C-alpha cells in the first residue's frame, strides 16, 4: 500500500544539517581547494583524472558509457575503501534498485520491481548463493559480506547471450580486489579501524579491515589478501499485531472467531458492528537484542606472463553469526479460537469505521503470555574460482572459468519458554490516539510472577546447504575490426538441501510445570523510545532462559527429525550461446552492440517427505533465449540504447519440494510442485544518455517486461497421474491412481506485465565560483508499475515492487576533505496478495533513509572518517489490508561510526 510522502520535515532537517556541516568545514579547507577549471564538453571521460569519491564516480560512468547494454556500476574510492558499510546499501544508490532491510541493515535487493529471487549474483564471475538463517530461496543475502572485501559492483539490467540465463531483473557482478589492479610493483596495503555506536542499544562495537598486496617488478605476478571483521549490537523495538482478523455477525457469540459476549452491546446493530469488525490477533510491544559478528577473507593470485595470457585464482570465505534474544509479553486469546477469543468478554469498545477495526477495547477472560526465546544462526560461505584468458592470435582469443561455492546456513540453537496467566480481566488496548502506537495495559501487575505458570518450551535446530559448481568456456574471433563472433557454453550443477529437528512435545508436565515463576524469570523493560502512550505496561517478567535451561528435566531430551523440514533439489543447467558483437560507423554515427541466442536446458530432481514417504520427482525443460542490444552515438556526448531479450528465472527452491501432506480418504494433496517451469518474460529497453561534461550525466530509460509465466498458488481438481508422484504412495489405501485429487500447490500461472521509467542525473558543480565549485550531486528516480495474475481471477502488483523510488547524494570534495549526505526513498510495496485472515493484502509503507559521511586526509597515508547511518531513525511500517491496519511498526536506531584509515 502506498502512502503519501510525509517526510518533508526530516528532509529539511537533514538538508540543513548537511549544509551546515559542509559550510562549517569550508573555511578550514578552502585554502586547499584550487579554483575549478572551466569544463569542456566531454568526448572521452577517461581523459580527466580525479581522486577520491569523484574518481569512483568517473570510473562508474566510463563503464556505463562503454557497455552495449544497460549497466550501472559502483567502485571503491581507494583500495579496500567502499563508499558504504553494507553492500546492499551501496547498490541501492543505483537507479532502479531498492533494498529490503532487517535489523537495521540491507539484506536483499529488488531491481526494477523484481525481487531477490529474480536477480542473479556473481562473485568474481561465478554465480553464487549466499544464505543466512532461514533462507530457502534463490535470493542472495548481501548481509553475509563486509563491503571492504569488494572493489566494484556492476548491475546489468539488460541481457545478452554471453551472460548466463537465470534473471528476470538483473545480473549483479561483485568483484574482489586483485594484485595487478594497483599501479607499480612491490607492496600495497591498507588498514582501517572504526568504532560504531548505536543510539538505541547504546553500545559501541568494532569494525576492522585490512588489505595486503604484492606484485613483482615486472608486473607479471601478484598476491593479494584482505580481511574484514565487524560486529553489530542493535536493538529492535516495535509494536506488532500479527495481522488482524474479524468474527462473523451471522454466527452466535462464542462460535468461530466471535467473542463470547459483549456487555455494552444492547442492540442487534451494535452486535453486528462489533462482530464484523477486525481486532488484532496478538497486540504487543516487543523488543529484541542482537549480537552479530562477521568475518571475511579473500585471497587472489594473479599471473600475467604476457599481454596475451592471464590466470587468476580467487579464494573467498565469509562467516556471519547472529545471536538474538526476544523477551515479549502479549495477549494471545485473540489469535486462538477454542480456548481463546470464544471465551473473551468485551466490557467496553470503540469502532474505527474507516478501517473497520475495534480501535479501543476492554476485555475479560483474556489469556496473557510472557515468552522469551534465544536463537543462534551460523552462516558460512566458501568459494574458489579460476579464470583464464589467452589470445591465441591477434584475432582469436578464449576464456575459461571453473569454480565452486558453498553456502551453509545453520540454526544450531533455537529455544523459547512461555509463562501463561489465563482468564485475566481488564486487558485494555487503545489505538484512538495513535494507530501505530496504542496504549496497552494487561489489567494486573505483570512484573510479578505470582499469576504466571511455566507451561511450554520449544526447541529446534536446522539448516540448509547450497552448492554451486561451474565450468564455462568461450572463444572470440575478430572477423573484421568491426565485427566479432563469440561462442561458448557452461555446465553448472546446483544442489540444495534442508534439514530440521524439533522436540517431541512442547507442553510441560509434572515438576517442570511451575506455578509462580519469580525464581525462573527476570524483569525487562521497554525504555520508552517508541513514545508509547501513558498507561501502558512497559516493564514485565519474562522467562530467564538460562535459568530454565538448567532447571528443566527435559531440556537435553533428544530432538526428532521434522519431515516437512527435510527436502532436496538437485539441478543441472547446461547452456550454449552464439553472439555477434559489432562496432562501426553508419551515417557518421558510431553504432555498436550485440545480437545472439542462448539455449538453456534445465534438469531437476526434487525430493521431500509426503507424510512419512520420501518422494523423488524428476523434471526437465528447455529455453531458447534470443537477445539484442544496440547503442547509437549520434554525437560524441550522446548515447541512444535499444535492448530486447527473452529471459527466464528458475522457480524458488522452496516451491519445488514434493513434500507436504497426502490424505487418501479425502483425496487431498497439499505440497510444492516439482514439475514447475521457470518464470519467463520478454524484455524491452530504450534509453538516452547525455554525457554533457566530464563526470556529468543526464539519462532516461524506459523498460517493459511481458511476463509470460508467473508462479502462483491454486487449489484445483486434477488427475493423480498429472502430479508426477509415484503410484506406490496409494498402495494399500482407498484411492487409486486413475482418480482425481483436490490439489493445493504452486502452478505456472497466466503471467502479467511490468513497465517503468528511470531518470538519472549526475554533475559536479564545477561551473560555480570558488567554494561552491567543490559540490556535486547524484540522483535518480524510478517509476515501476506491474500487474500479474495471482490465480482465481485475482490480479495485483508484484510483491516487493515499489511504484516510486529515488536516491540522492549531495557531496563536497577538496584535496583533503570530502563529505556527503544521501537519501533513499521507496514507496510502499506488497509482501503478500491477498493477505491472510480476510485482509486484502499485506505490505510495507513508504520509507526514506538518510545517511551522511565525511573524511579528512590527515596525511597522504592517514585518513579520519565519520559516518552516520539512518539519521532519521526510520521505522519499518508493515501493514495489512488496503485500510492500512498496523502489522509491525519497528525501528533499530541510528548508528555513528568514527574511524582511522591508513594506506601505504
From TrEMBL:
Residues 1-30 form the signal peptide. Gene3D superfamilies: TonB-dependent receptor, beta-barrel domain, TonB-dependent receptor, plug domain. It is found in: Cell outer membrane. Residues 65-170 form the TonB-dependent receptor plug domain. Pfam families: Plug, TonB_dep_Rec_b-barrel. Keywords: Cell outer membrane, Membrane, Receptor, Signal, TonB box, Transmembrane, Transmembrane beta strand, Transport. InterPro entries: Beta-barrel_TonB, Beta-barrel_TonB_sf, Plug_dom, Plug_dom_sf, TonB-dep_rcpt-like, TonB_rcpt_bac. GO terms for cellular component: cell outer membrane. It is a multi-pass membrane protein. Transmembrane segments: none annotated. Residues 422-871 form the TonB-dependent receptor-like beta-barrel domain. SUPFAM superfamilies: Porins. Belongs to the TonB-dependent receptor family. NCBIfam families: TonB-Xanth-Caul (TIGR01782). This is TonB-dependent receptor. It comes from Brevundimonas bullata.
